[in-house]
Amino acid sequence: MTRRIDDYALIGDLQTAALVGRDGSIDWLCLPRFDSAACFAALLGDEDNGHWRIAPQGAGTCTSRRYLDDSLVLETRWETRTGTVKVTDFMPQRDRAPDVVRIVEGVSGRVEMNAVLRLRFDYGSIVPWIRRSEGHRVAVAGPDAVWLRSEPPVKTWGQQYATCSSFTVTAGERVAFVLTWHPSHERRPALVDPFESLEHSLADWREWVGRCSYRGPYRDAVVRSLITLKALTYAPTGGIVAAPTTSLPEEIGGVRNRDYRACWLRDSSLALGALLAAGYADEAAAWRDWLLRAVAGDPADLQIMYGPAGERRLPEVTLPWLRGYADSSPVRIGNAAVEQFQLDVYGEVMDTLHLARLAGIPAERHAWNLQLSLLGFLESHWREPDEGLWEVRGPRRHFTHSKVMAWAAADRAVRTLEADPSLPGEPDRWRALRDEIHAEVCDRAYDPRRNTFTQSYGSAELDAATLLIPRVGFLPPDDPRVVGTVDAVRAELTHRGLLRRYTPDSGAVDGLPGGEGAFLVCSFWLADALLMTGRPDEARELFERLAGLANDVGLLAEEYDPVAGLQLGNFPQAFSHIGLVGTALALAGDEAAG
User: Fold this and answer.
1) Which is nearest to 225 in space by CA: 591, 562, 550?
2) With the CA atoms of 402, 406, 411 and 416 taken in that order, what torsion angle do they form, in degrees rounded to the nearest 10?
C-alpha cells in the first residue's frame, strides 16, 4: 500500500538525505549526493526497487516517533504485545564516506525484530552482487559498493535478493546496524562507531541550534524549519537543494512530477533572508558564495537552477521501470526547465547580493562587476516574454512577476551605488531603467476595473506571485493597487482556505494537463501580504493553519490537498520551510529576531 507523503521523516548528513517511513522502512536514499542515483527507490515504485526496513516482527506502523531534541536524529518507537522497542536513525556528518546508522534498543519486555535490506542501485534497476567479507556483507554493482555490519554481530541470510536478519532485544539491549557507501574501485572506508557517532551527531545539532538568535513565538516550528534547510544544504559548497526527492506528484495520478534535487536561484534571496534573520550568517555567506560561483560567466547563459556544486547540465530523462508514487508517472530525473528563460532570476540574484551587503557579509571583489554584467544583459532583454517563475511549459508571456523582479534588479543596483558611490556604475541610467519598467508594469499589468495586477500583460488570470509586489518594494503596502491585488488573489485563488499559484485550466497557462494542490509558500506569501496591509489577526490565523499542516515531525511538502488532507509534491520542500520562517519572523517583529 502506498504510504502518505507525510508518513516520512528526514535524516541526512548535509550531503544527501533519506526518507524513513512510519513503518521503519527507508524508502528513498541517493548516494553519495542529493542528486546521485538512488539505492532505495521504493518511494517511487515498490519494495523490489530498494528499501531497508527494521521493525518488530509482524508490526505495521510505529506507535510514535520524534526527533531527539532539536536535531535530525529520528527516534521511532513501537509498543508491542511482548514489550517496547525503539529504533534511532541518523546519518553522521561524514568524514569521507556516507553512513546510515540504525540503533535498535529494547525499552521493556522482550521484542523479536526483523530486518530486510534490499539494495537496488541506479534508481531501483540494478541488483548488486552480495557477498561476505571480513564478517560483513558487501554489495557491489558497477561504481557502487555498500557495506552492512552490525554491532554486536547479528546473523544474516540472503532471501529473494535481499539481506535478512532476525534478532531479539530486551530492556537495555542495543543492536546497531551501519550501512556505508563508497566507490567500488576504492578501499573500504574506516569503520565508524555507531554509538559514538550518535553522541557526536546530537552534540553537532545542539551546537548548531544554539546559534539560533530567534526567541519569538512559534519557535519550535521555526527551529525545525531551519534544521530542515540546513539538512538540504550541500555542505561542501553551501548550495541548498529545493528538496531531496524527485517526481513526488502535485496531483495523485498526474504527470506534474519534477526533479527538485537542484538549487534554484529564485530561492536565494528568501533563503538568505531567513538564515540571516535567525542568526546564521555563516550559512548565508556560504549560500551567497555558491550563488556567485554558479552564475559566473556569460550573463546570457544564466540558468534558473544549478546542481549542488554549481553544475549546469541537468538533462531531463524518464525512468520507465518505476511506476511512480501512487502510480503517478512518469518518474523524471533532471529538469528540462533548466533551459528556460526566466527573467525574474536576474532580480533574485541582484536582491540576494544586495541583502548580503546590507547584512555585512564581506563583499567578494568580483561580485559587483558580475552584477553590472547581469544588469547590462537585463537592460537589453527585459522587454522579452519569458516562462516565468512557475516554469510554464506553455507559450512565453510577459509575466508580471518577471517584470517586477527586473525592476528590483535595477532598484538594487541604484541602492548599492547610493550606499557606496565609490563603486563603478551609472546610477542615473539604472534609475531611468527602473522608472521605465515600473511605468510599463503599472500600465500593462494592472487591471483598473478589477483593481488588481494580473498574471501577465493583457491576461485575466491572477497569480499568487503578485503578492510579492510590496515585499520587494515595487509599491508600498498601503497603495490601493496592492490592497486590491491581495483581496483579488485571496478571493479568486483560495481553495478551502489555502492558496493556489494560479487557476488550473487544463494547461492553457502552463502547458500541462490536470491540476495540482494548494502551493504552500503562496499561502505564506498571503499571510505576509495580509500582515503588511494591516490585517495581523488574519495573517496570524492563516499562519497557524499552515504551520498545523506539517506532519508529526514538523515537515512540509511543496503542496497540500485540502480536500483529501494530503501533502503533495516533493518532500520536504525548502521553499515551504523558508516561507514558514519568514512569516513567523514577520509576525514576531524585529525584537524577536535577535
Assistant:
1) 550
2) 120
Contact between 590 and 536 (Cβ < 8 Å): no
Residues with Cβ < 8 Å from 218, sequence gap 6 or more? 543, 547, 584, 587, 588
Phi, psi (rounded to 5 degrees) for 318: -105, 155
Q: Please write down the long-range contacts of 445-452, taking CB distance under 8 Å and 24 or more positions apart.
A: 445/398, 445/400, 445/403, 446/481, 450/484, 450/488, 451/480, 451/481, 451/484, 451/485, 451/487, 451/488, 452/481, 452/484, 452/485, 452/487, 452/488, 452/489
Cβ neighbourhood burial of 209 (10 Å; 0-12, 13-18, 19+) = middle
pLDDT in tens, the chain (594 residues): 579 999 999 999 999 999 999 999 999 999 999 999 999 999 999 999 999 999 999 999 999 999 999 999 999 999 999 999 999 999 999 988 999 999 999 999 999 999 999 999 999 999 999 999 888 999 999 999 999 999 999 999 999 899 999 999 999 999 999 999 999 999 999 999 999 999 999 999 999 999 999 999 999 999 999 999 999 999 999 999 999 999 999 999 999 899 999 999 988 888 999 999 999 999 999 999 999 999 988 888 899 999 999 999 999 999 999 999 999 999 999 999 999 999 999 999 999 999 999 999 988 878 999 999 999 999 999 999 999 999 887 889 999 999 999 999 999 999 999 999 999 999 999 999 999 999 999 999 999 999 999 999 999 999 999 999 999 999 999 999 999 999 999 999 999 999 999 986 645 676 677 788 999 999 999 999 999 999 999 999 999 999 999 999 999 999 999 999 999 999 999 999 999 999 999 999 855 544
Do 501 and 464 contact (CB within 8 A), yes or no?
yes
Helix, strand, coil share (%) of the chain residues, nearest 5? 35, 25, 40
Residue 446, C-alpha cell as written in the block: 494592472
Give the residue ranges of DSSP H helices in 88-188.
Answer: 121-124
DSSP 246: B
- Measured distance CA(303)–CA(465) in Å, rounded: 20
The model's pTM: 0.96
Per-residue cell: 551: 506532519
Secondary structure (3-state) at 9: strand
Please name the residues in contact with 93: beta carbons below 8 A apart, sequence gap of 6 or more. 13, 14, 201, 204, 235
Query: CA 136, CA 117: separation in Å to the nearest integer?
Result: 13
Closest CA to 246 of 122, 125, 333: 333
Residue 329, Cβ density class (10 Å: 0-12 exposed, 13-18 middle, ≥19 buried): buried
User: Which sign does the torsion angle of CA 294, 455, 557, 39 carry?
Assistant: negative
Residues in the chain: 594
Any idea which residue has 528499501 for its cell?
51
Query: φ and ψ at 493, to 5 degrees?
Result: -105, -5
**Whole-number Å distance between alpha carbons of 61 and 39:** 23
Q: Which of left, alpha, beta for 56 (phi over 0: left; psi -120 to 50: alpha)?
A: beta
